[in-house]
Automatic annotation (TrEMBL):
InterPro entries: MATH/TRAF_dom, TRAF-like, TRAF1-6_MATH_dom
Stretches assigned to the MATH domain: 188-335
Name of this protein: MATH domain-containing protein
Source organism of the structure: Didymodactylos carnosus
BP term (GO), one: regulation of canonical NF-kappaB signal transduction
Length: 425
């Protein structure tokens, strides 16, 4: 019962005691008040009990939620534990094996520490030695640089020496040529050319220091044509390192104005056999009067014309070569002026000595048609001795007793285009 209702009930009771007449009126009123209060108390109790039941329901619901959440967490934890149990076993076994390995390696670890302690002085010594080696390497590098500079200077010095040597050699060759020019030249249309130091000249040709050499000039007469020969010991560009090339060169002379042009006289080359067997190599050709090589020279020399493949190199370079003896070879160049009419000779004949008369008589005894034709062939001629009788006797003609060996060179269709070639050097 509430505190507020207690005074009302008490007041009603006091009124009953004071006025008995009004008992019948007051008692029902009290009864109604009590019933109203009971109903109010019941409603309040029901409300309170409803609140308590709802609170209990919420508590039970919360407990159920918490219980379900805990069960799910427990389930997940159990699953994790089930999954992790083999892993934990493996990790445990691995930890055990690592522990065993560690126990086995521990003595080695201790030994390694001891070895490191012992190696520390060695490491220090190695460091010192490495520093010394670095210094030595730097010194060696410096010495190498100095040596390289010295080598460069030496190379420059040697190059200068070689250049000076080449210049001196060229000057020496020029001096030799000048000396040969000052000597009395041949004036009968023939030249016997002595070529010494053949091996050295071949080396110069191999090194391309001097590809060709020139013979001393010779003349057809004292006031005739001026001529010379040009020799490529290793061949010109058409026969490089396969054949020796030999060419005829017309030079500008003092009497060219009174000569007959173009030059049309037969030219014969002869490479002497020095073995005593007299098997010389002879080649001849007739000039092409349309070529510039045989016109009146406008420069010091005309273009050379002759044989690019005069003789194979192997016949010259062999150790037992018949054509090179004591590092010397001989080449004869002959120009046939015998067919020239005497009235066309541009010079006055000079008195001839006995030797010249005998030579011309012997030349006259050889028929003109016996001269070798202008074809590509090599001839090995065995000379016969020509004896000149005592004064007053005629010269013995031994032409019929001569033995001529003629060997025709094999030539293919490619190299049969022409017999005479002009040098392009």
């Amino acid at each position: 019962m509430d505190k507020a209702s207690s005074p009302t009930i008490t007041n009603d009771l006091e009124n009953v005691d004071q006025s008995p007449e009004s008992e019948q009126i007051v008692i029902p009123t009290i009864r109604q008040n009590l019933l109203a209060r009971r109903n109010a108390i019941r409603q309040r109790r029901e409300a309170v009990s409803g609140d308590l039941s709802e609170q209990n329901h919420l508590q039970k619901k919360d407990q159920h939620i918490v219980t379900n959440s805990d069960e799910e967490k427990c389930t997940e934890t159990q699953l994790i534990l089930k999954r992790g149990k083999p892993t934990l076993n493996e990790e445990r076994q691995r930890a055990v094996s690592l522990s065993n390995v560690q126990e086995k390696l521990y003595p080695n670890y201790q030994l390694s520490n001891r070895s490191l302690d012992e190696l520390m002085p060695v490491h220090q010594n190695v460091t010192v030695l490495d520093a010394k080696l670095q210094q030595a390497f730097q010194m060696i590098q410096s010495v190498n640089n100095k040596i390289k500079v010295s080598n460069d200077k030496a190379d420059e010095f040697l190059f200068g020496i070689n250049l000076n040597q080449l210049i001196l050699q060229q000057q020496l060759d020029n001096i030799k040529e000048s000396i040969s020019l000052t000597q009395t030249p041949s004036s009968d249309g023939t030249l016997t050319w002595k070529i010494d130091e053949v091996s050295g000249k071949i080396v110069n040709a191999q090194l391309e220091h001097q590809l060709s050499i020139y013979s001393p000039p010779f003349y057809s007469s004292l006031s005739g044509y001026k001529m010379r020969a040009r020799l490529f010991l290793l061949g010109d560009e058409n026969a490089r390192r396969t054949h020796m090339s030999l060419f005829f060169v017309l030079m500008r002379g003092e009497y060219d104005a009174i000569q007959k042009w173009p030059f049309d006289h037969n030219i014969t080359f002869c490479l002497y056999d020095l073995s005593g067997q007299h098997q010389h190599i002879i080649n001849s050709f007739r000039p092409d009067t349309k070529s510039d090589s045989f016109q009146c020279p406008r420069l010091e020399m005309n273009t050379a014309s002759g044989f690019s493949k005069f003789v194979p190199l192997e016949m010259i370079q062999r150790d037992d070569s018949r054509f090179v003896k004591n590092d010397t070879m001989f080449i004869k160049v002959s120009v046939d002026f015998c067919a020239m009419h005497p009235n066309l000779l541009p010079h006055i004949p000079q008195p001839m000595n006995k030797k010249e008369v005998d030579r011309q008589d012997l030349a006259a005894a050889i028929p003109i048609d016996s001269y070798p034709p202008p074809c590509k062939r090599a001839r090995y001629v065995q000379d016969t001795e020509r004896h000149v009788s005592e004064p007053g006797e005629r010269i013995e003609r031994a032409i019929d007793q001569s033995i001529v060996y003629s060997i025709r060179l094999e030539s293919s269709a490619e190299n049969a285009e022409g017999d005479v070639e002009e040098s392009t050097f």
